[in-house]
Amino acid sequence: MTIFRRHFFKLQFILVIAAFIFGVYYPKIWEQIRSFNFGKKKTANGNLSTENDLLLTKEQLNEFNGVGGQPIYLALLGRVYDVTRSEKHYGPGCTYHFFAGRDASVAFITGDFKNYIEDEADNVLTLNSPGILSLINWEEFYKKDYIYKGKVIGRFYDEFGHPTKYENKFRAMAEEAEFDKFNRQKLRDKYPDCNIEWSIEKGSHVWCTKSSGGKERNWIGYPRKLYELQNESFRCACIKEEYLDTNEVVIRPYENCASKSQECYYNVN
User: Residue 159 is part of which domain span?
Assistant: First the structure.
């Protein structure tokens, strides 16, 4: 029993010491564990990316412009791509060097490389629906053909690589533009374009056939000015007789053209 008690007291002493150490150092140890960011990566500017992306400020992105042998990065909609392998296009002195080291998303649509304002170069919400959809197509191109590197801290993404309200608004506008495009295509299927030609002698000539507007069908239709709702411009469309009184779009006849004629002349000298 004496030996057993002696070992028992030693065990108690060890447990008391361990409890004391644990009580003193446990908060510090736990804080150290919590400080680890598993699956995350610190970037050059000290920010943590939730997706291990490279996060760059505009100033840091500017350095990747191919000058002095630097890699060539460009950004589109706040996302950075390595285009170094296409140096003959994006390198110093080349056609598209303007895009190197910056996010100039707007210029992809306007083609204006001179009269731009640096702070507005990525302000894509000023574009119309076709322009927004064109940017989405450019985005798919770079995703497919070039190496994605990360994001630009600014208009589209915050310092942790999270989407900003601006980015969310742009994506919502892109979805709406895609929906509008779908509806416009439905209208073109229902009201196909006319054939159009112009000559000095006869002026403008519009006419309908069973294949005008690139739409093969079993009817011909009558040429009319078609205005989509809330649109001041028109296009010439071939209209079936049962749709001449539609409220879906605004339809106007051509001047000096018989109502049931399948061809019309206007702007005649």
Answer: 54-185
